[in-house]
Amino acid sequence: MSDHEPTPAEADSATTDAGATDAEARPAAKTPLWLAVVIAVVFAVLYAYDLWEAIGNLVGLNIQAGALGISLSAYGIVLLIVGIVVPALVYGAAFWLARLRGPLAQLAIFFTGWCTVQAVSLTIGTLFGAGGLDFG
Where does the sequence pass through the membrane (predicted)? Predict the structure, then answer.
């Protein structure tokens, strides 16, 4: 037996897996609960605005089409319903993916999801203009 005590550096390297570096062995810094809640709520407001817009489009365009004596095509109704579903699904996915990450990763995930919702909303608006009303 040896009377040699391991130095702190030796003790650290002995506790890590073979081949793993110290940075890989340490868990990522967890986001404080208050910060995670603030990030989630701020982005929830942004996503909720898109959801509110989509609901307003569905209701408003139905009323407007009725006032003009025409109806929305099945294609138009499907597009408007997709516009309602997408923000809720993307926010749910972003929330689930970001739940165990650091604050910058949470911001990046929520922001990427929000940008995706914006792109889909713009595409839906363009596609609706191409065939959302039934004039026949």
Answer: 33-52, 72-97, 109-130
